[in-house]
Design brief:
The complex is a heterodimer of chains A (about 280) and B (about 280). Chain A is about 35% helix and about 25% strand. Chain A has helices spanning about 40-50, 90-95, 110-125, 140-150, 170-185, 220-225, 225-235, 255-275; strands spanning about 1-15, 15-25, 30-35, 55-60, 75, 155-160, 190-195, 205-210, 215-220, 240, 245-250, 255. The longest helix of chain A has 23 residues, at about 255-275. Chain A starts with a strand and ends with a helix. Chain B is about 80% helix and about 0% strand. The N and C termini of chain B lie far apart (about 70 Å). The chains are: A alpha/beta (about 280), B mainly alpha (about 280). At the A-B interface, helix 2 and helix 5 of A face helix 7, helix 8 and helix 14 of B.
C-alpha cells in the first residue's frame, strides 16, 4: 500500500512554486531521506502531508485519502522549534502537553499515556529527561525529547524535519539507527530530512531529492548522480564517492556542507529574535 | 485586625484577585506575553474613566475595554500580540483617552489615584460579590482552554500540525487575561498589576518544573504576598499596594538570585555517550 502518493502535485507559497507537477509514491515501511538545497521545499512538503498547506493542483493522498490536519497516525518533529528562553517545564510535562493537546478542557493524562511516555523516553535513552527542566537541557537532549514525543501514540508515519541539526556526528548516527530500528519493528514509514546524505546513508531505503521545483525519488544509485542533481540544483554538480561517503560538489565546493553552515546561522538569528520578545 | 469589616473585605477581595492572577499569570509568563498583560491594564484605565463619565461603575468599563482590547490583540495574530511596539502604541493611546475622559469629568481626582494604585481597603460587599463572579468566569474560561493553551504555548509548531486553532486559543487567552487584569486592578491598581500577575508566577516557574506544581505555587505565592501585604500595611500604615508590590519584587529577586542546586546527571559528553550508545 502507498502511504504517501503525489499525482502531478503543485504547491506554491505565495506566488512562488515550491513543487511543480511532482509525482511519486512512498510505500509502507520505507525509510526515506529527504534532501535538497535550502528552500527546496522539504519542510513545505511535510507540512502539505500534515494537511497544513493545501496543494494548488494535483492529488496528494496520505493513507489513501486527502491529508487532514491533526491526523493522529502521523508523528511529527518540526524543524522550527520554539524554545522560550526561560522554559522551566520538565521533560515529562513537555511531552504530556502534546497528548490529546487539541482537545478542550483541563489536561489530565491516563495511566496508560503516562506509561507510554516513560516507554518512549526509555526508547530514546532519555529516561533522566522526564524530571529535568527544558531550559537546562543541551541541544541533543532536547532533540531526544522531541523524538520521544514524535514516537508517542503508535504513529504509522513519521515526519522528522531536520532531526540531526545541532548533534555531533556520533549521536546523529545513534538517532538514525534508533529511528530505523523502531520503525522497522513496527512497519512505520519514515521521512527524514537532512542536509547531508552521509548522515543517513546507512539507513536509507530510498532518497527523495527536492530542488528547482522538481522531485526525484529513487535509490541512492539512481538519484544521487551528476545529471539528476545538476537538474535539481540548477548548477553543474559532481558526485564523488570516497570512503563509503558521497560528496555533492559544485565547482569543487561541497554544496551540502555550505548549506548546513548557512542554516545554522539562520537558526541562531531566529533564537536571538525570540529572546528579544521576552 | 480582622475585627474591622473593611479589613475582612480587603482580605477576601485580595484573596480572590490573587488566586486568579496567580493562575492566569502563570500562562502569561509561560507564553512570554507579560507586556501584553501590562498594556491591558493601561487600556482598562481608559475604560474605567470612560465608564465613570457615562455614569457606570468603573469596573464594568474596565472589564469591557480590557476584554475588547485583549480580543483585538489576539485577532491581530500571534505575532502582533507579542510585538512590543504595537502594544506600546496602543497602550499610550489608551492612556491618552483616559486623560481625555478625565478632562470632561473633573471631580474625579481621588478616583484616579484609586484606579492607578488600587485601594483594597475601600472594597465593599457588593464588589466582593462582583469579584467572585468575575473570578469564577475567568477560571472557568481558563479551565476550558487549558489543554490546547499549554500545548500551543510550549510547542506552537506541533500544536498547529495537530489541529489546535492557534489564533482562537491565543485570542481566548488574552480575553481571560483581560478579565484577570480587571480584577487585580481593584486590589493593586493599574500601574501595579504586575505585582500579582507576573511577580508570583515568574518566581514559581523558577522554583517548580512541573506544570501543576508551578501553577499551584504561583497562586499560593500571589495569595501569600497579597495577604501579607495587607497585614504589613495595617501595622505600618504604608499603602497596601506598595506593600504587595514590595513583597512581590522581594519574592521574585530572592528566587532569582538563589543559588541553584546542582542537578544530577548534568555531566557533559561522557554522560551523553553513555546513554546514547546505539546497540
Amino acid at each position: 500500500m502507498n502511504v504517501i502518493e503525489l499525482d502531478r502535485v503543485t504547491i506554491a507559497i505565495g506566488a512562488r512554486n515550491v513543487l511543480a507537477e511532482a509525482s511519486f509514491a512512498i510505500q509502507r515501511g520505507e525509510f526515506i531521506g529527504v534532501l535538497g538545497p535550502n528552500g527546496a521545499g522539504k519542510t513545505t512538503l511535510m507540512r502539505a502531508i500534515l494537511g497544513l498547506i493545501p496543494p494548488n493542483a494535483g492529488a496528494l493522498r496520505v493513507f489513501g485519502r486527502p491529508p487532514r490536519r491533526g491526523d493522529a497516525a502521523i508523528g511529527y518533529l518540526p524543524q522550527v522549534r520554539t524554545v522560550l528562553p526561560d522554559m522551566r517545564v520538565c521533560g515529562f510535562d513537555f511531552i504530556a502537553s502534546s497528548v490529546n493537546g487539541d482537545r478542550w478542557g483541563v489536561p489530565w493524562i491516563t495511566r496508560a499515556d503516562r506509561k507510554m511516555i516513560d516507554a518512549m523516553l526509555a526508547a530514546v535513552g532519555g529516561r533522566d529527561l522526564a524530571k529535568r527542566p527544558l531550559a537546562e537541557m543541551s541541544g541533543g537532549e532536547r532533540q531526544r525529547l522531541l523524538l520521544a514525543q514524535a514516537l508517542f501514540g503508535e504513529p504509522r508515519l513519521l515526519l522528522l524535519d531536520e532531526p540531526l541539526i545541532g548533534l555531533d556526528y556520533r549521536y546523529q548516527e545513534a538517532v538514525i539507527d534508533l529511528v530505523r530500528r523502531f520503525a522497522r519493528e513496527r512497519g512505520i514509514t519514515v521521512l527524514v530530512s537532512a542536509h547531508e546524505i552521509n548522515q543517513l546513508i546507512g539507513a536509507l531505503d530510498r532518497v527523495l531529492y527536492l530542488g528547482n521545483v522538481h522531485a526525484a525519488l529513487g535509490t541512492v544509485a539512481e538519484v544521487v548522480t551528476a545529471p539528476v542533481l545538476s537538474r535539481l540544483y540548477g548548477a553543474d554538480i559532481n558526485v564523488v564517492h570516497a570512503n563509503g561517503q558521497i560528496f555533492v560538489l559544485s565547482r569543487g565546493r561541497n554544496v551540502e556542507h555550505a548549506d548546513h553552515l548557512h542554516d545554522e546561522d539562520h537558526d541562531h538569528n531566529h533564537r536571538h529574535e525570540r529572546h528579544r520578545h521576552a | 485586625m480582622l475585627d474591622y469589616d473593611f479589613m475582612r473585605n480587603a482580605f477576601a477581595a485580595a484573596g480572590i484577585a490573587a488566586v486568579v492572577s496567580g493562575l492566569v499569570g502563570y500562562f502569561l509568563v509561560l507564553r512570554a506575553q507579560t507586556f501584553a498583560g501590562h498594556a491591558l491594564g493601561h487600556i482598562g484605565f481608559a475604560g474605567a474613566t470612560g465608564a465613570v463619565l457615562v455614569g457606570m461603575a468603573p469596573i464594568w468599563g474596565l472589564v469591557g475595554f480590557t476584554v475588547l482590547a485583549g480580543v483585538g490583540m489576539g485577532l491581530l495574530g500571534e505575532r502582533i500580540s507579542g510585538r512590543d511596539v504595537a502594544v506600546g502604541v496602543v497602550l499610550a493611546l489608551a492612556l491618552g483617552f483616559g486623560i481625555l475622559f478625565l478632562h470632561y469629568y473633573t471631580a474625579f481626582a481621588t478616583q484616579v489615584t484609586t484606579l492607578l494604585f488600587g485601594n483594597v481597603l475601600a472594597v465593599d460587599r457588593s464588589m466582593i460579590a462582583t469579584l467572585v463572579e468575575l473570578g469564577a468566569v475567568t477560571l472557568a474560561g481558563l479551565a476550558a482552554i487549558m489543554r490546547p493553551l499549554i500545548f500551543a504555548s510550549l510547542q506552537p509548531e506541533l500544536a498547529e500540525a495537530k489541529g489546535v486553532p492557534l489564533r482562537f486559543v491565543s485570542t481566548a487567552f488574552l480575553a481571560i487575561v483581560a478579565l484577570a487584569v480587571a480584577q487585580s486592578v481593584e486590589i493593586v491598581g493599574i500601574l501595579l498589576v504586575f505585582s500579582l500577575m507576573v511577580g508570583p508566577p515568574a518566581a514559581a516557574q523558577r522554583l517548580a518544573s512541573g506544570l501543576w506544581s508551578a501553577m499551584a505555587l504561583s497562586a499560593g505565592l500571589a495569595l501569600a504576598e497579597a495577604w501579607l501585604g495587607i497585614a504589613v500595611a495595617y501595622y505600618t500604615d504604608w499603602p497596601v499596594s506598595f506593600c504587595i508590590a514590595a513583597l512581590s519584587a522581594a519574592g521574585y529577586f530572592a528566587v532569582h538570585f538563589m543559588p541553584r542546586r546542582s542537578r544530577p546527571g548534568a555531566g557533559g559528553l561522557a554522560e551523553e555517550e553513555r546513554t546514547v550508545s546505539p546497540s
